[in-house]
Amino acid sequence: MKQSSASHGAPKVLIVDDEADILELLELTLVRMGLESQRAMKVADAIALLKTHAYDLCLTDMRLPDGTGIELVQYIGQHHPELPVAVITAYGSTENAVAALKAGAFDYIPKPVSLEQLRALVKSALNVSEKDTQAAPDHTLLGNSPAIQLARNMIDKLARSQAPVYVTGESGCGKELAARLIHEQSTRQAQPFVPVNCGAIPENLMESEFFGYKKGAFTGADADRDGFFQAANGGTLFLDEVADLPLSMQVKLLRTIQEKKVRKVGATQEDPIDVRIISATHQALSSLVENGKFRQDLYYRLNVIELKMPALREMREDISPIAQALLERLAKQSDAAAPVLSEEAIAALRDYAFPGNVRELENILERALALCSGDKIGHDDLYLSMPASLDEEPREPGAKWPLQDYLDRLEREAIMEALEKARYNKTAAAKLLGITFRALRYRLERLGID
What we know:
Blueprint: E1 12-16, H1 20-32, E2 36-40, H2 43-52, E3 57-61, E4 63-64, E5 67-68, H3 69-79, E6 85-89, H4 94-103, E7 107-110, H5 115-130, H6 146-158, E8 165-168, H7 175-184, E9 193-197, H8 206-211, H9 228-231, E10 236-240, H10 247-259, E11 261-262, E12 271-272, E13 276-281, H11 285-290, H12 296-302, E14 305-308, H13 319-333, E15 340-341, H14 343-351, H15 357-371, E16 376-377, H16 379-382, H17 403-421, H18 426-433, H19 437-447
Parallel strand pairs: 1-2, 1-3, 3-6, 6-7, 8-13, 8-14, 9-10, 10-13, 15-16
Antiparallel strand pairs: 4-5, 11-12
């Protein structure tokens, strides 16, 4: 592995393009930023230079006389994994940009090249190459099971990229925590991390909440206001439950991601933004695409690299240390000594299905902490609710009809149980139930639950 050229003076950038005017533009911009540059017009020429010189960044066009930029990205990934490489793509070439990011490119920039976007990309990329170690993050993923180690290793790799990340997994398995870890270990760690629950925003407010608005844009807009994208500028925007976005909003989100610009409601011009997108949902986006409920082009933009977070039942050997760590944190909040879990309690937790995953485990332990009388939590203190078997369902005549009454009763019980586990946080309860916030609100009104 070659030493970074930055240790010997100004950072050096390798530019690969077969168009003279593009080369002149890039070189002039880099010189004004105090950087050195070296040019190559073919893939073979670039590889020859990489074998004999050290660089801090590589900028390559997608189409070259003897190959493609993706081939160069793959070569650098194999032989110079510490070197960030960005690809210049033709305007509107979504497929090429996504392919480059999946191949390992740090980022991409579309033609015609925007100098403002170019400068932001270069600064971010050079910051990546200069950082060999990262400050310890405020959040950690507990456990040593193969499933969680795989997720942890993937997070480390994703932190060095600017590619959009799609986090999958069941409700309560730590998707937001994974997004925060990617942000905290990246060059954007000093900039904002803005989490957004897409299912909790009323549809008529989505555009103004995401993009902001100008004074006078609509009734009640008495001052300019920034949206989520402006708040996350320079940092990371985490779109949780992205599957809940209506189709009209999906179109606007796609354009913003492609153009890297936002237009406030009521504004006449667009403003550039530099935001990394991390999205998540417990639903299967691919199925929603097939059913026409989610745009395919947006799906491919968001799902550049997928990170799967394991369910708690897939890492049962980690349940004991995770539970004890959660107990210590909960006890610390109450300025009390953390009790220990009895062997019976640990065995019961390991046998439990945990449909709500780590979030449910935390709720169970918080309740046990409040109810246990000594310094040890026993099996009975956990109050684990085991699902009833089919044989235990009511069998008396008329118990299952009228059908609507019976279904309403089951729905009411499920909702009340979720609300109790979520400490009556409706957004969290909706996640446990696997429905949107709006859907839960509708059901609460229909069933007369206050």
